[in-house]
Amino acid sequence: MVEFLPDMICTEPDMIAETVLLPGDPLRAKYIAEHFLERPVLYNTVRGLYGYTGWYRGSKVSVQSTGMGTTCIMECAYQLIEKYGCKNLIRIGTSGSDNPDIHVGDTICSLASSNLSNITVEEFGTYDYIPTGDFKLIKMASETAKENHLRLLVGPTKCGDMLYPETDSVPSFFLNPLSAYRFVGDEMEGAGLLVAASHYEDVRAMVMITCSDHQIYGDEDTPLALRESKYTNMMKIALEVAHKLDEGGK
Ligand SMILES: O=P(O)(O)O[C@H]1O[C@H](CO)[C@@H](O)[C@H]1O
Ligand SMILES: O=c1cc[nH]c(=O)[nH]1
């Protein structure tokens, strides 16, 4: 077993389920545990990264908050996989978007996470590695959304280290050309999770996000206080996928 210091997740070996939902925000983890899970147990409070395990429709499911950024989610993913044997990692985050076809509240599933963060440069050098979501999980999410009459948009997303890039401090070539590629969402952890999971043959990962604010339709933005609780469609789809995986992936 690889030893990680400092630990981000400290609990007993069998406390965490094979399928883990991963919101960045610890209070979103708390909301899901309190509103969707039966008999939830808080198993982690290290660094305020709440982690809960409970039962959803008879299936054991965990919800572990990751904090913000690719480094945090990668460390969480490695610890979940190496120390706790987790197999299915599903991010459930929030995002911005500069795509005119996307609106605040839309639920998105990332096909591939185009990476503006330094993590892949460090690992792959000039080799253009493209972090992609697991096909089986994406297919399950897509079918689950359809079965439940929920809208789910599947497409490429962007992952960067800056939440609010300031136009006066970032060169315009960094910002503008990318908006022409019609990424469906823009967040800060997706590529980290997909790269971390790609190191393990038997681990699957998927990135789901809900658009919480929009670069074109700024008047639609979700108030901060509602960002823990508002994205229930994404939560339901992810929990149903976790349940299906527990039932044998049907
Ligand atoms: O809502 P979460 O999951 O934290 O995700 C998004 O929200 C944070 C920025 O507000 C970043 O972590 C971004 O990726
Ligand atoms: O990463 C994020 C998350 C929410 N909204 C954004 O604009 N970016």
TrEMBL record:
GO molecular function ontology, one term from the record: uridine phosphorylase activity
E.C. number: 2.4.2.3
Cited Pfam families: PNP_UDP_1 (PF01048)
InterPro entries: DeoD-type (IPR004402), Nucleoside_phosphorylase_d (IPR000845), Nucleoside_phosphorylase_sf (IPR035994)
SUPFAM superfamilies attached to this UniProt entry: Purine and uridine phosphorylases
GO biological-process terms attached to the record: purine nucleoside catabolic process
GO cellular component, one term: cytosol
Catalytic reaction(s) noted: uridine + phosphate = alpha-D-ribose 1-phosphate + uracil
Keywords: Glycosyltransferase, Transferase
Nucleoside phosphorylase domain residues: 20-224
Enzyme class, first EC level, given as a word: transferase
Protein name: Uridine phosphorylase
Organism, as annotated: Hungatella hathewayi WAL-18680
